[in-house]
Amino acid sequence: MADRLPILAFHDLKGDHSAIAFPPDLFRRFMLKLHQQGYRTMSLLEAINHLRLKKPFPERSFVITFDDGYESVYEEAFPVLQDCGMTATIFLTLGGKGKVTSGERLPAIEGRSMLNWQEILEMKQWGVTLGAHTLTHPDLTRLPPDRMEAEIRDSKEIIEDILGTPIACFAYPYGRYDDRSHRLVQQHFACACSDDLGLVTLKGDPFALKRVDAYYLRTEKRFKLMWTGLFPCYIRALSIPRGIRRFVQNGLR
Ligand SMILES: [Zn+2]
Predict the structure, then answer these.
(1) 25: CA distance to ligand 1 center in Å?
(2) CATH of the domain at 102
(3) Cα 48 to ligand 1 centroid, rounded to whole Å
(4) Angle at 60 between CA 54 and CA 66, to 5 degrees
(5) How much is the pTM?
(6) Which of 127, 169, 223, 239 has the smallest number of CB atoms closer than 10 Å to its CB?
(7) What pLDDT, in 10s, does the model give residues 153-173?
């Protein structure tokens, strides 16, 4: 049994150099390798159950999350998840409260193509969990109370209406939260992901779950750390002062 659990945070699976892009071919190799090494995914809600019961996580388990809901999650990641028998949670940004039809894509974010509801439904039926990531992807910490509440509550209700299933997981846009949003999210959800870098421990806060952004795993050398036992050291190293971090990262390039 393990006392720490990695929650990996992906965004768009693209080969570009943006900080939110992760190369699709690397994603496939990464997941196949993890699968061969005996790694298994947990759903976010299973992970939360372990936190609540203070029950250690199964050895070699991890959680996959995708923020925003890019089309590439269906095109690139979903076939890999199916091949490896893995599950994931996708946090959807709805782009507003507008009416939707099943074939229509969610409004693009910075020119990046998003999922449509047919794709979302197909992934849900296969066992992928859907979560909320607000209506318009604001920095919640800068919003007045009524708008903050609408962004959090309405995004949950709209997804529930369309999919006909309770939505229990939330991710803070940009990973940013404050006392108000942290409190509010607890009224509507069972858990919430932040972008705070780290592995989840049994003492972790289910409403400010730490994650490892895939940005830190964008080379073979780095993602291999997942199964060499050095992963916790690497993640700790990323939180130390920049000079030392650069030294560690240079060694991993
Ligand atoms: Zn986001």
Answers:
(1) 22
(2) 3.20.20.370
(3) 21
(4) 85
(5) 0.93
(6) 239
(7) 999 999 999 999 999 999 999
